[in-house]
Amino acid sequence: MIMDDRLFRNAMGNFATGITVITTEAEGMQHGMTANAFMSVSLHPKLVAISIGNNAKMLNYIKQAKKFAVSFLAQDQQEISMLFAGQIKDGRQYEFARLNGMPIIEGALVNLTCNVVSKYEAGDHTLFFGEVTEMISNEGDALLYFKGAYRHLHVLEEKLT
Fold first, then answer.
1. What pTM was estimated for this model as a whole?
2. Does Oxidoreductase show up as a keyword for this record (predicted)?
């Protein structure tokens, strides 16, 4: 069965995801990209996985650095997501915070730094598995992506009487 690329992409868009910015530092330069292809893999050891397109500049940066950071964006960080997705092209530079020597997004819900422990080519992407070396976790609600658009989590709070 031949499946249309647009049909497949639209179907996959029905899976709501959080939004991350993947960062690394290679040859003294900081690099970042927006991604929603992230998952927790293992508790012992603490492993996560990211998926990077084989045509993305970030691929070679992570291969060189052998480490990366992941920032889970908060609902008020949509502009940051758009900047690192290339949707804002005004030439501005982002001022990264640092964690464990790695560039991160300040104010994110979670920041992780990771050492690459393995990588696997899978179709037109490469999966990087990283062992978490440092973590910061903050309170707040996540910025989401669903059906090709940014979404916000609306939590109903019940009052106890």
1. 0.90
2. yes
Q: At 149, which amino acid appears?
A: A
Residue spans of the domains in the chain: they are 5-152
Summarised one tens digit per residue, pLDDT across range 86-114 is 988 888 889 999 999 999 999 999 999 99
Q: For residues 96 and 151, what is the distance between their CA atoms, to the nearest angstrom?
A: 24
State the Cα–Cα distance between residues 153 and 161, nearest whole angstrom. 25
Fold classification of 5-152 (topology level): Pnp Oxidase; Chain A (2.30.110)
For residue 98, the tally of other CB atoms under 10 A from its CB is 14
Backbone phi and psi for residue 5, each to the nearest 5 degrees, phi listed first: -60, -45
Listed in sequence order, the residues at least 6 apart from 86 whose beta carbon sits closer than 8 Å to its beta carbon are none
